[in-house]
Design a protein that fits this description.
The protein is of the alpha/beta class. It is about 30% helix and about 30% strand. It contains five helices and eight strands, in the order ββαβββαβαβαβα. Strands 1, 2, 3, 4, 5, 6, 7 and 8 form an eight-stranded mixed beta sheet that branches. Strand 3 and strand 4 form a beta hairpin. It is globular.
């Protein structure tokens, strides 16, 4: 549920980029941040390890302007991808309004994608969120790798009928803005109802 600040007339939504380690979650956020006008974004905060892997989360606020006198903001987060950071993932996911699941298209990463998506479903359930009604966008990243896993693989495994799916190469910015545009629209639409 979004945060509504009546005192400062602000509505804040939380979008979380979720997926296995090194799938491109941070790369997505870096591209989005670089693409925005300075007046539409806050500073990007990255908490990395020495290997440049996300330790707790990456974050930046995205300002969308005014709606009926209220400022609209999306707080953009990533979770750490490594499975031993499960508690951190759950903390970051708590009170999210939407999720982008970033799958790694390399065939050897298929099982990690499945494990991460199953964990996302478990964590949504543990947080009292209905995974079938919750705004989730699936992004198959690294589509420029040799022999990427076929689109539809994750959807079939988890019976995800009608979920928005995007192909991307986050390092080149391909498919990144389309993905974030879709998840933000889904979140706002859900809030309006």
């Amino acid at each position: 549920m979004p945060y509504i600040g009546f005192h400062n007339k602000e509505v804040s939504f939380k979008i979380v980029y979720y997926g296995p380690g090194m799938s491109g979650k941070t790369t997505n956020l870096v591209h989005i941040h670089k693409s925005l006008r300075p007046d539409r974004k806050g500073e990007m905060v990255m908490l990395d390890t020495e290997e440049e892997r996300t330790l707790f989360f990456d974050f930046f606020p995205l300002e969308l302007g005014q709606v009926e006198g209220y400022s609209v903001r999306f707080n953009m987060y990533t979770v750490p991808g490594q499975s031993y950071y499960e508690a951190s993932r759950k903390l970051v996911l708590d009170s999210a309004d939407g999720v982008v699941f970033v799958a790694d298209s390399q065939p050897e990463r298929l099982d990690e994608n499945f494990q991460a998506y199953a964990q996302l479903l478990q964590q949504l359930d543990a947080l009292g969120m209905d995974a079938n009604a919750f705004p989730v966008v699936l992004q198959y990243n690294k589509r420029d790798c040799g022999h990427p896993i076929p689109i539809g693989t994750i959807e079939r495994k988890f019976q995800l009928n009608g979920i928005p799916v995007f192909e991307s190469v986050a390092q080149k910015g391909k498919g990144v803005m389309e993905t974030v545009r879709t998840v933000t629209q889904m979140v706002v639409k859900r809030f309006e109802i």
